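Appendix B. Chain record.
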Amino acid sequence: MRDVVEIGMGKTARRGYHLDDLALVPSRRTRGSADVSVAWQIDAHRFELPMMVAPSDAVVSPTTAAVVDKLGGLAVLNGEGLWTRYDDPEPVLAELAGGDEPPPQRRIREIYAQPVKPNLVAARIEEVRATGARTAVRLSPQNTLVFANTVIDAGADILVIQGTVISAEHVVVGREPLNLKTFIADLDVPVVVGGCGNYQTALHLMRTGAAGVIVGYGAHPGSTTARLLGIEVPMATAVADAAAARRDYLDETGGRYVHLVAYGDITSGGDAAKAIACGADAVMLGEPLAAAAEAPGGGRYWDPTVSHPKLPRSSVEQVAWSDERAPLAELLVGPTSDPSGARNIFGALRRSMAKCGYSSVKEFQKVELTLRG
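Structure tokens predicted for this chain:
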């Protein structure tokens, strides 16, 4: 039954729930955490961690993509980021990461005004492939038709088409529209698309033939999307809605399963556990991993919306000072001595699954939930 409230005469609003509003309920049995698998498989690619790393220049470089792959996850390189705009992005990364304060927005716009170079897109993919790591590249809906062939021809394993909000057909006056259904049908690599925030959009994206759908737009403390656009995604409700769309699409197609990736307000193992409990198959992490010692942002975080030429929707924020940064391995799989929940995120997920009595991510989607407070 839909939880709808009247907000005024003739106008109603549906009540939505964030992950913080929920708690997990352990079942009658528990398991040893060593007996729990958090592995995730999308198309032919199996990952030991149910995780994609967000396409932020502050977190993902060809080098960190290789590290993430070895740890069991999938890093998404921003195909329209600094690594594909500059032959040597290290000086501008140092400018963004250095100093007592981040550079002003005007300077950030100048940095990202450098055009994307197709030869660099191909070169960065080859850098990742040379390490033996799986490669995923993010393109915006606006530029997918421009750069997708370059990405595919360079050998990317997964294409990610991602914006704050994405639809099955992106229409821009004066340009050829991006019709995802016809576009994806012609590709030989799996495509993950997003973000979305409700049942209808999730179902439409599934009908494009996408292998995965991203739920959410990556809300984090430095994001200004809610204030600027009035758009906010209550993640628990959004993931549950998308899971309902997946069930209906599964019936509609006679068994085609589409993976859901939760992206936004996930900073701990408990958050990841609740996102999966709502129906996600994996989570996308950005800001929490900016605290990694290997992160090119030097302890600062920004997402791709920081470079929007007309309406940037992210600031450069300080996530961790130099003495607070930890190895990426500790943040993801531990061990750690930090009890805050910000480190050993997937060790915490594994233990949460064990405490609730489930041995796989798919089974864990059945765990009981309760509202807090």
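Further analysis of this model is presented in Appendix C.
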